[in-house]
Design brief:
By secondary structure, the chain is α/β, with parallel strands linked by helices. The chain has 19 helices and 17 strands.
């Protein structure tokens, strides 16, 4: 600190604490009184005096104006309470004069203190600014020197005032010489006239401009350098020169030449790629149409499955109780009503969309085909020869057996309709090993091929392209819905496989399903007969049936009663919860998955199990959309509609039969 700024040392850089302020003020006051007593004695040393003013100055400058005011007020109060008896002048006027003088002293000292602090701040700010400027210049130079490109700064007259290390290294001359270097000495002669003209125009425009030319490097090699010059402006908006950077683009120039040659080669390949893209887009378009069909028909399929539950249940009950006239009439009426409703839904239903949820399980397809063969023969009839030739007895596939049977049935019926009398349909299985992109987009691996051949009329290319489209059919009106192959396509895709068609007019057709194989294991077929028999012979249960469809509720109620159970019905989840709150005892809840209100069957099951731990629950639904994800993740079994008494009995046996104890 310079000698002129020494008072700044006395002024604290922060506001004093209360104790610090009190201490300084007290010391100043005591010092002023003590000095007066020392000089004048006790009798004359207690009056008002100028000896208080140094104390006021010290307190105000050192600890702030509020302490100066406090000291002044203390001195005045002290003298008012004990005035000096030796004063010969008017005491009131003397005290007023003291107060005014003291107040002016405090104000002036506070101004002085503020000035000292501002001066200190200015000095500190100036020092910080100088240090920041030095640091900034150091960082700028370090950054510029570390950059792998040429950098420079010019003044308004075009002379350079800064250049970085890459700039100097390119010329291989000392820094001072590089600052004043004339670049025309190393500019390629073929670029000289053009560059000079472009540089003059660019500098005159005082706008960003770019130059590109060949310059001879220090090692004698000409390099392509692209320079970009950006004008720089001062704080007052005055033009101060240019900031320039230069890039060595020699490698880029060579790359451009190589790229030109490559482009000529790629042009031919692009044409081939465009053809493949068009084919892929066409396949994607077909797949998107199938997805759209699935979205539109999910809700319709839910209603249709409810109707099928009524019809199948009614027919089954009539078959079991042919002599019960009242029951038969009631069941006939219910089935007829459901059939009429189904007739109105037929045109909207896409029963085999890809959105249908599957229940895959390990299956030996050859064994399943043998079990299905009698049904296939009845469907094909005697006019056509059916040959079932399974040749993959060890192959196991993870699939939904019922959907697989439906797919094979659709293929067999389609083949029958396309095959004239006396023709042949052959269904065979074969283990295959596929390579990449050999069949659609299937990954390489082991697959089971299930092929259905026929000796029918065959299909042309246009018909094959639309074969899997929903509602597309070549049959006469009223003989086909166009849903058979779309179901096969959706089933194969959902099972992780693919479907192909090989056909030609007059050559017959072959539809092949490629399904991924899994490790061979015991994929024994399961039936519900034993479980159903056990349920029929089991105890009578109190069942809470939750179903919003009245006809379905009537039918399931009848089936449960026929199985020997007692039924209490509710139309939705809230009604079922109200029944549970009454305390009535129940051994089982059978609830639909989708119901009116804000609670689903899963929600109802969770609440019911919280209220009554261990209460068995069966979920049921005919919906085929994504809402089944919640049910599949729930810990309760899902009974799919349509179902009959045997399936219902098996489901009840599954949830009510205690697990065997481990020994």
């Amino acid at each position: 600190m310079t000698p002129a700024l020494w008072p700044l040392r006395l002024v604290p850089r922060r506001s004093p604490t209360f104790l610090e302020g009190l201490a300084v003020t007290t010391v100043a006051l005591v010092a002023a009184v003590a000095l007066r007593l020392l000089l004048l004695g006790l009798e004359r040393g207690l009056g008002l005096s100028i000896t208080y003013f140094p104390a006021l100055i010290a307190a105000t400058i050192l600890v702030g104006a509020r302490w100066g005011w406090l000291l002044l007020a203390t001195a005045v109060t002290f003298n008012l309470l004990s005035p000096s008896p030796f004063l010969t002048v008017d005491l009131v006027r003397l005290q007023a004069l003291f107060c005014v003088s003291g107040a002016l002293t405090v104000l002036l000292c506070q101004s002085f203190r503020s000035g000292l602090l501002r001066l200190d701040e200015a000095a500190a700010g100036q020092a910080a600014a100088q240090q920041t400027l030095a640091d900034t210049e150091s960082r700028f130079r370090m950054l510029a020197d570390s950059a792998p490109i040429l950098m420079w700064v010019t003044r308004t007259d075009g002379r350079r005032e800064f250049a970085n290390k890459a700039y100097v290294d390119f010329l291989a001359v000392p820094y001072e010489e590089a600052i004043d270097f004339d670049w025309r000495r190393v500019l390629h002669p073929d670029d000289m006239a053009r560059i000079l003209e472009e540089q003059v125009a660019g500098e005159a425009s005082r706008r960003l401009f770019t130059l590109e030319a060949r310059y001879r490097r220090a090692d004698g090699e000409f390099r392509w350098v692209r320079s970009v010059s950006q004008p720089r402006w001062g704080p007052d908006g005055a033009f101060q020169g240019f900031i320039g950077v230069g890039f060595d683009v020699s490698d880029g120039k060579r790359a451009e030449e190589d790229l030109h040659r490559i482009n000529e080669i790629l042009a031919e390949r692009v044409q081939a790629a465009l053809g493949e893209r068009d084919e892929a887009e066409a396949q994607l378009h077909r797949a998107q149409k199938l997805d759209a069909v699935g979205q539109l028909t999910g809700g319709v399929a839910h209603d249709f499955n409810n109707l099928l539950t009524v019809i199948i249940g009614a027919l089954d009950l009539m078959q079991r109780h042919p002599k019960d006239e009242a029951r038969r009439e009631r069941m006939i009426g219910a089935a007829q009503g459901a059939a009429r409703r189904g007739e109105r839904l037929t045109q909207q239903l896409l029963a085999f969309s890809r959105r249908q949820a599957l229940k895959p399980e390990p299956v030996q397809v050859d064994a399943l085909l043998k079990d299905t063969e009698p049904l296939l023969r009845r469907a094909v009839g005697e006019a056509v020869n059916l040959v079932v030739a399974p040749a993959a007895p060890e192959c196991v596939v993870n699939l939904d057996p019922s959907q697989f049977e439906a797919a094979i049935m659709n293929l067999a019926v389609n083949a029958r309709d396309a095959t004239p009398s006396g023709g042949m349909i052959r269904i065979e299985t074969l283990p295959v090993r596929l390579e990449a992109r050999q069949v659609e987009t299937l990954e390489p691996g082991d697959y089971l091929c299930v092929a259905v051949h026929d000796t029918g009329v065959g299909m042309d290319a246009d018909t094959q392209a639309r074969a899997f489209e929903p509602f597309f059919t070549t049959k006469a009106p009223g003989r086909g819905t166009g849903l058979g192959l779309s179901q096969v396509y959706g089933f194969a895709r959902q099972s992780g496989g693919a479907t192909t068609v090989d056909s030609a007019p007059g050559k017959g057709s072959c539809v092949s399903l490629y399904l991924p194989r899994i490790a061979a294991g015991a994929a024994a077929a399961t039936t519900t007969t034993g479980a159903a028999a056990a349920a029929r012979n089991g105890p009578s249960l109190n069942v809470l049936l939750v179903e919003d469809d009245l006809q379905v509720a009537e039918m399931v109620d009848a089936m449960l009663c026929d199985l020997g159970h007692r039924v209490r019905r509710a139309e939705h989840a809230d009604a079922a919860l109200s029944v549970l709150e009454t305390g009535e005892a129940f051994d089982l809840i059978l609830t639909d998955l989708i119901m009116p209100g804000d609670k689903s069957g899963v929600d109802l099951a969770r609440i019911a199990v919280r209220q009554r731990p261990g209460l068995p629950v069966i979920l049921s639904s005919g919906y085929t959309g994504e809402v089944l994800v919640a049910a599949e993740d729930a810990p309760w079994p899902l009974l799919r509609k349509p179902y009959g008494p045997d399936q219902l009995a098996a489901a009840i046996a599954e949830v009510t039969t205690p697990a065997p104890s481990e020994t």
